[in-house]
UniProtKB/TrEMBL annotation:
NCBIfam families: peptide-methionine (R)-S-oxide reductase MsrB. GO terms for molecular function: metal ion binding; peptide-methionine (R)-S-oxide reductase activity. It comes from the Bacteria. Residues 81-203 form the MsrB domain. This is Peptide methionine sulfoxide reductase MsrB. Belongs to the MsrB Met sulfoxide reductase family. SUPFAM superfamilies: Mss4-like. PROSITE patterns: MSRB, TAT. Signal peptide: none annotated. One of its GO terms (biological process) is response to oxidative stress. GO terms for cellular component: cytoplasm. The gene is msrB. It comes from Rhodanobacter glycinis. InterPro entries: Met_Sox_Rdtase_MsrB (IPR028427), Met_Sox_Rdtase_MsrB_dom (IPR002579), Mss4-like_sf (IPR011057), TAT_signal (IPR006311).
Amino acid sequence: MSRIDEVIAADRRRFLRSALAGGVMLAVGGSIALPRLLAAGADSWPPGLIHTTPGSVLLETFADDGRNLGLHRELKLVLTDAQWHQRLSQASFDIMRRRGTERAFSGEHERPAARGIFRCRGCGTALYDDATEFDSGTGWPSFWQPISAHNVVQNRDATLGMERTEIRCARCDSHLGHVFDDGPRPTGLRYCMNSLALHFVPRTAS
């Protein structure tokens, strides 16, 4: 069985277990079943808007040429809903501030032709290096690790009648996607992200 077949089979197993348990129909965000069960491009069930609490956070910063600039304490990005609407498209706002999910295969999920860094579309924080991206066959950008553990945060997500681990940007608290334990080596993890939450920056010459 190929790696893609294994990923699809794992997602189908999650879907069947959820359905048999009497939960809602969707088994996982990032599941192969999601585009077939959702007609809309974003989830309609998440709780209210995400509001970032003022404060500071320790981030690992990276230049566009890939150089690690070290750890720096940065102020959290706190914006009003109106300011977020000015900064983001409606589709990105629904995903990043309302915890929605884009339709599978609707975004730029393939590996880019150039080397570079995926940054948060909301605040520019470095999130993933293209070297860790892989084709999961699910239709969402997938990575086996973030560029730094400092730059993302994990939250328990009990929506949809199941337990998942949500991934958010550490600086602006924007929803990015979820992480699952069916990824490739060396971590065995699959960070399943929304394309509309990411901004790819090609690596510049140092």
